[in-house]
Design brief:
- This protein has 460 residues and is α/β, with parallel strands linked by helices.
- It has 20 helices and 14 strands.
- Strand 9 and strand 10 form a beta hairpin.
- Helix 11 runs parallel beside helix 13.
- The longest helix is centred in the N-terminal third of the chain and has 21 residues.
- 29% of the residues are buried.
Length: 460
């Protein structure tokens, strides 16, 4: 009965003992590999699958380490030539702490992938039939450097750096928290480059299933899988222009290796094709996590990072450019005045002070949504405190309440003085709306001294 149950499960199940000899192999697993159960059961794993080794076999690795491997993507051609796409989970079999073998459960995603690619083909044909003669770069790249709203010296310096970088064709690695405006900067680079008349193609690597990302990037050949058509990938579509890959660290590890090869020689090959195509594409990538953390966690390949990191740009979060907050608020008010047909002039001074004090973890995007929300509720020409989203104002109020320094006898004189100094500097910066010259005058200290202390306490 147990065998009947296991054979009826719509997933491949393969079990080996501690010596790597198969002791169970269900019908679905046999279909995946194009084998019969009797060809596998009772035989050493490496004898049946000679392409594997002790290092590349997940089951032998799990037996050796005793550590499970979850949701590992695998694409391979079985003995009958059929392409198989699976998601595998491999778990050690332990009895009283001793590893006695391993079980691998494989879910076949081939059919799902085929259907998804078929949908992409259908949508592509629909888009081509209904498309108007609009250049692709005009459709996808709307922003220029002039659209970046800032008066922050570091941001101005960053934009000048980006303008210089734009002249070359080197890859660029952009790092910045969510909402800092990575794509806006990248589009500015594209428009300032010699490729500005070419296409600008943008793809968020986390927005589509990893199993579809390869065909999206490199294209497909008719007959490479059921229902497939000849379809250009993003590299071919971006020929002569710029390809922007956002959240590149979410790309599967093995696909990162293929991307590296394309970056080296510009040659791509559609899935299922034996012909190579030379492309001329500038690749810009971005992550919203610290690159060093991604390398440490092995989410991003080191060799790919070093190839992409020819030139790097780190966009500072809004909390480190608080002098821009009032300028951005004014810009967003003007923007929504037009779309909402209102005549709002400004934000109440007390509310503005609180907005400047907030750290804005969602950065410029969060600030924009906050102003948009307030513009929906405001009556009159001044946005009041109660017009803003309640959850944000509660966080701001709690943040301000918790900011008071702890002056106790348990702390030494140095610690108490530092806490008081930090509080006074922050209050003065809020009062002057981030103007360092005015704050320095108010505190009666040199501007350079104030800048040092702002950096010391990480206040901007």
């Amino acid at each position: 009965m147990l065998k009947a149950i296991l054979n009826s499960i719509d997933e491949g199940i393969h079990v080996v003992n501690k010596d790597g000899i198969t002791i169970y192999y269900n019908k679905i697993a046999a279909e995946h590999d194009g084998l019969q159960a009797e060809e596998v059961i009772g035989k050493p794993l490496l004898d049946v699958f000679p392409s594997l080794s002790n290092q590349t076999s997940t089951m032998l690795t799990v037996i050796e380490s005793g550590v499970p491997i979850f949701n590992q993507h695998q694409t391979y051609r079985n003995i009958k030539g059929k392409m198989i796409d699976t998601i595998n989970t491999t778990i050690p079999i332990k009895v009283k702490g001793t590893v006695l073998g391993a079980v691998e459960i494989a879910k076949d995603y081939s059919r799902i992938k085929q259907l998804s690619n078929k949908l992409i083909d259908i949508q592509t044909r629909i888009d081509r039939r209904s498309a108007k003669a609009v250049p692709i770069n005009d459709d996808n790249a709307h922003f220029y450097f002039e659209d970046i709203i800032t008066k922050d010296p570091n941001m101005i310096q960053l934009i000048e750096k980006a303008k210089k970088i734009a002249r070359s064709s080197s890859p660029i690695f952009v790092y910045g928290e969510t909402g800092t405006g990575k794509e806006l900067l990248v589009q500015g680079i594209h428009h300032a480059s010699r490729r500005s008349h070419g296409p600008f193609i943008s793809q968020n690597c986390a927005a589509i299933p990893s199993t579809l990302l390869e065909s999206t990037l490199f294209g497909t050949t008719k007959g490479s899988f059921t229902g497939s058509e000849n379809r250009e990938g993003l590299f071919e579509l971006a020929h002569g222009g710029t390809l922007f890959l956002d959240e590149v660290h979410t790309m599967p590890y093995e696909l990162q290796s293929k991307l590296l090869r394309v970056l080296e020689d510009g040659v791509i090959r559609r899935i299922g094709s034996n012909k190579s195509v030379k492309t001329d594409v500038r690749v810009l990538v971005a992550t919203n996590e610290n690159p060093q953390k991604l390398l440490h966690n092995e989410t991003l390949r080191k060799d790919l990072y070093y190839r992409l990191n020819v030139v790097s740009i780190e966009i500072p979060p809004l909390r480190k450019r608080k002098g821009d907050i009032e300028l951005l608020i004014s810009t967003f008010i003007d923007l929504f005045n037009q779309s909402f047909e209102k005549g709002v002039q400004t934000v109440d001074e007390k509310a503005l002070s609180k907005l400047i004090s907030y750290d804005w973890p969602g950065n410029v995007r969060e600030l924009r949504h906050c102003i948009e929300s307030a513009m929906n509720l405001v009556e009159g020409d001044v946005i009041q405190m109660n017009d803003f989203p309640r959850e944000i104002m509660e966080i701001i109020n709690n943040q301000n309440d918790n900011y008071l320094p702890v002056l106790t006898s348990n702390n030494g004189l140095k610690e108490n003085l530092s806490a008081l100094e930090e509080k006074l500097i922050k209050e003065k910066l809020l009062e002057t709306k981030g103007n360092i010259n005015q704050a320095a005058k108010g505190l009666r200290i040199p501007r350079q001294t104030l800048q040092y202390k702002i950096k010391k306490y990480n206040l901007m």
